[in-house]
Amino acid sequence: MSEHRVGDKVEHVTAGTCDVLHGPFETRWNTDVYLLGMEDGTAFQATGSEITPPKPAFAVGDKVTSGSAEFALHAGPFNGISGEFWVLEDDNGKHRWSLADYITKVEPSDLVPVGTRVRVDRAEYAERTHGRIGVVVSNTASFRTSGGDRHRYHVELGSDERV
Prior knowledge:
The chain is mostly beta strands and 163 residues long. The chain is 0% helix and 50% strand. The chain contains no helices and 15 strands. Strand 8 (83-89) and strand 9 form a beta hairpin. The chain is flat and about 50 Å long.
């Protein structure tokens, strides 16, 4: 499950696009709850399971990752039986298709450059690596958490030094 912050735009299952006004706060039933605002000025409560980040808008020419590789969007979107899909082009000019749910838009300003020294602060199913120092060796990895969040970075850990 993703944690949303005040000011984020989110998609609610029935209300559509909303702004996060407050949250998350925990209820006595141990669920995370957010206060969401709509365009007309009204606000309502929603659980974290009812909201998701809005899907990024893709355009032909965008750089995306699918699996562990990077591609350019060549054509699309097309509506298929399984959902929206795009035609991807690799650096060699070869094409393949992918469902929109399995591609992630690459925002160059958001990527930590390869070779950067980092401290691991989150690694699903690898708690022993938390706090360890390493070097980013890839920023197009395709690991996913149980909540579906994509982990872009492959970090090569150095010594057992901890922060």
